[in-house]
UniProtKB/TrEMBL annotation:
The keyword Hydrolase applies. Catalyzes the hydrolysis of the thioester bond in palmitoyl-CoA and malonyl-CoA. Keywords: Hydrolase. Pfam families: 4HBT. One of its GO terms (molecular function) is long-chain fatty acyl-CoA hydrolase activity. GO terms for cellular component: cytosol. One of its GO terms (biological process) is acyl-CoA metabolic process. Belongs to the acyl coenzyme A hydrolase family. It comes from Buttiauxella warmboldiae. This is Acyl-CoA thioester hydrolase YciA. Residues 7-122 form the HotDog ACOT-type domain. InterPro entries: Cytosol_ACT, HOTDOG_ACOT, HotDog_dom_sf, Thioestr_dom.
Amino acid sequence: MIPQDTPVGELVLRTLAMPADTNANGDIFGGWLMAQMDMGGAIMAKEIAHGRVVTVRVDGMTFLKPVAVGDVVCCYASCIKRGNSSITINVEVWVKKVSSEPIGQRYKATEAVFIYVAVDNEGKPRPIGR
């Protein structure tokens, strides 16, 4: 893996890591980060599909560094593939330290590939425009 010092993709979600989001060690719970990534990826997928999408798969979830309470969590997304009804989105979480040292530091905390499918009102796959 080539070191990366800037996010890839579009900023789709930005939020603050809170005490309620911690695990037993006091770090931000990985499941909470995954939920933020899914929401961020879904925002991009919905824009591409012009409507409802569902998450069907997550590949390569990699947790690189822990996230602390008070950190700003930023989700960056980029579309890497479009099928007839599926949309594959790469999502990166970048953290900005604003409450603890070193203030202002940014780093990539996690990344994964999310696959969404555009669905109609009955939940059945529907084609997306190209």
